[in-house]
Fold this protein.
Amino acid sequence: MKRIYAAMADGVLVASRRNGSWWSERRLEGSSPQAVTADPSRPEVVYCGTFDRGLWRSMDAGDSWERVGEDVVKDPVVAVAASAAERSGEHGVVYAGTEPSAMYRS
């Protein structure tokens, strides 16, 4: 199944191709997402940076989400990327950029 993720004004749009048709669902509603990315090596692992609720991770391709790094990242997360080359255990290394300007690495 193919999935596309889009950070919208008030949630993450998860679009899936099933049986030849596209379906979309909203996730993390009311969270002010700023950036979303999938781990290139494990596409079912998705990260979302939000303006007012920190960094979030989905382990099931966007169906459910959990907050991560809440003890470390306290500022608005405005950029997020998962590395295809650098690994940390089973996951790609994740970078989160915040405002005011700071960069965090998993």
